[in-house]
Design a protein that fits this description.
Blueprint (H helix, E strand, L loop, with lengths): L1 H6 L11 E6 L7 H16 L2 E5 L9 H12 L10 E4 L4 H12 L4 E4 L3 H4 L13 E3 L3 H16 L5
Helix pairs in contact: 3-4
């Protein structure tokens, strides 16, 4: 309840108003990774005095177009009852990246995680154009190359 969130003020990091964040992630409720991430995010939000609106897509219910629509809808929230202070998103496709740009142009702070490295980084990416404030993920191509080098060199004794 929001009253419980508003009464917590024992830590300087949370001695502030309670923020409202909406997470729009490409994960589905039947995926163990996303279920664990969701549970951890909810617990962290509770401890940090944040109201987190995070609903995973139902099994088979995710689409890039639907996610892009959800991001645009969140960015257009105007009434006090559905006001959002910021979005947390994954960026699994160019269509979703364009929705992130749409949200940023409307003044919505956007934070990204997990997927979208190629959409976020480099010239013209979401970081460079200011559409995303913070992004955390790994470069999976680079990670794969490093793993292959390690496997070939150290485990098989070959040259990479």
């Amino acid at each position: 309840s929001s009253m419980a969130l508003d009464s917590v003020n024992c830590d300087p990091c949370i001695n502030r108003r309670a923020y409202v964040l909406k997470a729009i992630l490409h994960g589905t409720s039947d995926d163990a990774f996303w279920s664990k991430l969701s549970a951890s995010a909810r617990q962290s939000a509770l401890e940090m005095r944040i109201h987190l609106d995070l609903e995973l897509y139902p099994p088979g219910g995710f689409s890039d177009e639907g996610m892009a629509r959800d991001i645009r809808r969140a960015a257009d929230s105007k009434s006090e009852s559905d006001k959002i202070d910021g979005l947390i998103v994954t960026i699994p496709s160019p269509a979703v990246a364009e929705a992130v740009r749409y949200a940023a142009k409307r003044g919505m702070p956007v934070f990204g995680l997990n997927s979208g490295y190629d959409e976020v980084s480099g010239r013209g990416g979401l970081v460079e154009d200011g559409s995303i404030l913070f992004f955390t993920a790994m470069n999976e191509k680079m990670g794969g190359e490093m793993a292959a080098d390690y496997f070939l060199r150290d485990l098989l004794g070959g040259n990479s």
